[in-house]
Write a structure and sequence with these properties.
2 domains, three-stranded mixed sheet
Length: 160
Protein backbone atom coordinates (compact mmCIF):
# COMPACT_ATOMS: atom_id res chain seq x y z
CA UNK A 1 0.00 0.00 0.00
CA UNK A 2 1.35 3.43 -0.98
CA UNK A 3 1.32 5.94 1.84
CA UNK A 4 0.65 9.67 1.43
CA UNK A 5 4.26 10.73 2.18
CA UNK A 6 5.48 8.33 -0.54
CA UNK A 7 3.15 9.94 -3.08
CA UNK A 8 4.38 13.42 -2.09
CA UNK A 9 8.00 12.27 -2.44
CA UNK A 10 7.32 10.85 -5.92
CA UNK A 11 5.57 14.05 -7.00
CA UNK A 12 8.50 16.13 -5.75
CA UNK A 13 11.00 13.95 -7.61
CA UNK A 14 9.01 14.24 -10.85
CA UNK A 15 9.00 18.06 -10.60
CA UNK A 16 12.71 18.67 -10.03
CA UNK A 17 15.39 16.43 -11.60
CA UNK A 18 18.07 17.83 -9.27
CA UNK A 19 16.04 16.74 -6.25
CA UNK A 20 15.78 13.30 -7.85
CA UNK A 21 19.56 13.13 -8.37
CA UNK A 22 20.24 14.22 -4.79
CA UNK A 23 17.78 11.62 -3.47
CA UNK A 24 19.41 8.89 -5.53
CA UNK A 25 22.86 9.87 -4.27
CA UNK A 26 21.63 9.92 -0.67
CA UNK A 27 20.03 6.47 -1.02
CA UNK A 28 23.18 5.06 -2.64
CA UNK A 29 25.41 6.58 0.05
CA UNK A 30 23.32 5.22 2.89
CA UNK A 31 23.19 1.75 1.33
CA UNK A 32 26.93 1.58 0.70
CA UNK A 33 29.48 0.65 3.33
CA UNK A 34 31.46 3.82 4.06
CA UNK A 35 34.79 1.99 4.05
CA UNK A 36 34.20 0.88 0.47
CA UNK A 37 34.57 2.85 -2.74
CA UNK A 38 32.16 0.59 -4.64
CA UNK A 39 30.17 2.49 -7.29
CA UNK A 40 27.86 -0.38 -8.19
CA UNK A 41 24.33 0.77 -7.56
CA UNK A 42 25.27 4.46 -7.40
CA UNK A 43 22.77 5.88 -9.89
CA UNK A 44 24.60 9.21 -10.07
CA UNK A 45 27.57 7.33 -11.55
CA UNK A 46 25.66 5.25 -14.09
CA UNK A 47 27.52 5.32 -17.37
CA UNK A 48 30.91 5.97 -15.75
CA UNK A 49 33.76 3.81 -16.93
CA UNK A 50 37.42 4.57 -17.31
CA UNK A 51 39.40 2.28 -19.56
CA UNK A 52 43.19 2.36 -19.27
CA UNK A 53 44.63 1.70 -22.69
CA UNK A 54 47.95 -0.18 -23.09
CA UNK A 55 50.05 2.99 -23.54
CA UNK A 56 48.71 4.49 -20.29
CA UNK A 57 49.31 1.24 -18.40
CA UNK A 58 52.83 0.93 -19.84
CA UNK A 59 53.73 4.50 -18.84
CA UNK A 60 52.40 4.04 -15.30
CA UNK A 61 54.40 0.81 -14.97
CA UNK A 62 57.52 2.68 -16.18
CA UNK A 63 56.93 5.42 -13.60
CA UNK A 64 56.50 2.85 -10.82
CA UNK A 65 59.79 1.23 -11.86
CA UNK A 66 61.66 4.55 -12.22
CA UNK A 67 60.46 5.77 -8.83
CA UNK A 68 60.87 2.31 -7.23
CA UNK A 69 57.42 2.76 -5.76
CA UNK A 70 54.79 0.03 -5.98
CA UNK A 71 52.14 2.36 -4.46
CA UNK A 72 52.50 5.05 -7.16
CA UNK A 73 49.02 6.12 -8.31
CA UNK A 74 47.71 8.43 -11.00
CA UNK A 75 45.07 10.87 -9.77
CA UNK A 76 42.64 12.28 -12.36
CA UNK A 77 40.56 15.39 -11.77
CA UNK A 78 38.18 17.36 -13.99
CA UNK A 79 37.57 21.03 -13.26
CA UNK A 80 36.06 24.00 -15.03
CA UNK A 81 38.45 26.03 -17.13
CA UNK A 82 39.99 26.43 -20.53
CA UNK A 83 38.34 27.85 -23.62
CA UNK A 84 35.92 24.92 -24.06
CA UNK A 85 34.64 24.71 -20.49
CA UNK A 86 36.46 21.86 -18.72
CA UNK A 87 40.03 20.70 -18.23
CA UNK A 88 41.61 17.52 -16.99
CA UNK A 89 44.40 17.42 -14.45
CA UNK A 90 46.72 14.48 -13.83
CA UNK A 91 48.97 14.14 -10.83
CA UNK A 92 51.18 11.38 -9.49
CA UNK A 93 50.56 10.37 -5.90
CA UNK A 94 53.71 8.72 -4.55
CA UNK A 95 52.20 7.17 -1.42
CA UNK A 96 48.58 6.37 -2.17
CA UNK A 97 47.14 3.12 -0.87
CA UNK A 98 43.57 1.94 -0.31
CA UNK A 99 43.52 3.43 3.19
CA UNK A 100 44.56 6.88 1.88
CA UNK A 101 41.82 7.38 -0.68
CA UNK A 102 39.00 9.66 0.31
CA UNK A 103 35.44 8.32 0.61
CA UNK A 104 34.48 10.17 -2.57
CA UNK A 105 37.29 8.58 -4.61
CA UNK A 106 36.93 5.74 -7.06
CA UNK A 107 39.89 3.40 -7.54
CA UNK A 108 40.50 1.74 -10.89
CA UNK A 109 43.08 -1.04 -10.81
CA UNK A 110 44.21 -2.70 -14.00
CA UNK A 111 47.29 -4.69 -15.02
CA UNK A 112 49.27 -3.71 -11.91
CA UNK A 113 48.54 0.04 -11.98
CA UNK A 114 46.08 2.18 -10.08
CA UNK A 115 44.17 5.32 -11.04
CA UNK A 116 42.07 7.34 -8.60
CA UNK A 117 39.31 9.76 -9.59
CA UNK A 118 36.86 11.66 -7.42
CA UNK A 119 33.15 11.02 -7.94
CA UNK A 120 32.39 14.56 -9.16
CA UNK A 121 34.97 14.20 -11.93
CA UNK A 122 33.67 10.70 -12.72
CA UNK A 123 30.15 12.08 -13.23
CA UNK A 124 31.53 14.61 -15.71
CA UNK A 125 33.50 12.00 -17.64
CA UNK A 126 30.98 9.24 -18.19
CA UNK A 127 32.59 6.60 -20.40
CA UNK A 128 36.20 7.54 -21.13
CA UNK A 129 39.59 6.15 -22.03
CA UNK A 130 42.89 7.12 -20.43
CA UNK A 131 45.78 7.26 -22.89
CA UNK A 132 49.43 8.32 -22.83
CA UNK A 133 50.59 10.38 -25.79
CA UNK A 134 54.18 11.12 -26.71
CA UNK A 135 54.88 13.06 -29.88
CA UNK A 136 56.80 16.10 -31.12
CA UNK A 137 54.33 18.56 -29.57
CA UNK A 138 53.39 16.98 -26.26
CA UNK A 139 53.95 14.14 -23.86
CA UNK A 140 51.51 13.16 -21.15
CA UNK A 141 48.32 11.49 -20.13
CA UNK A 142 45.13 12.40 -21.95
CA UNK A 143 41.47 11.44 -21.87
CA UNK A 144 39.19 10.42 -24.69
CA UNK A 145 35.77 11.42 -23.40
CA UNK A 146 32.82 9.91 -25.27
CA UNK A 147 30.30 12.58 -24.27
CA UNK A 148 32.56 15.58 -25.02
CA UNK A 149 30.93 17.58 -27.81
CA UNK A 150 33.79 20.00 -28.42
CA UNK A 151 37.47 20.59 -27.74
CA UNK A 152 39.76 23.56 -28.00
CA UNK A 153 42.29 23.76 -30.83
CA UNK A 154 45.23 22.77 -28.65
CA UNK A 155 43.32 19.87 -27.11
CA UNK A 156 43.70 21.03 -23.50
CA UNK A 157 40.05 21.68 -22.72
CA UNK A 158 36.74 20.13 -23.76
CA UNK A 159 33.04 20.88 -23.67
CA UNK A 160 30.31 18.65 -22.22
Amino acid sequence: MVERHDVEKIEQLEEDPFVALAAQEQEADSARDQSSVDVVGDKALEGFSLILNPRAVARLLELKKEEKNAELTLRVRIYSGGCSGYRSEFSIDQNCNSNDTESNDIEISQDGVKVVIDKISARALGASELDFVSDIVTEGFTLRIAKAHSACGCGVSFGL
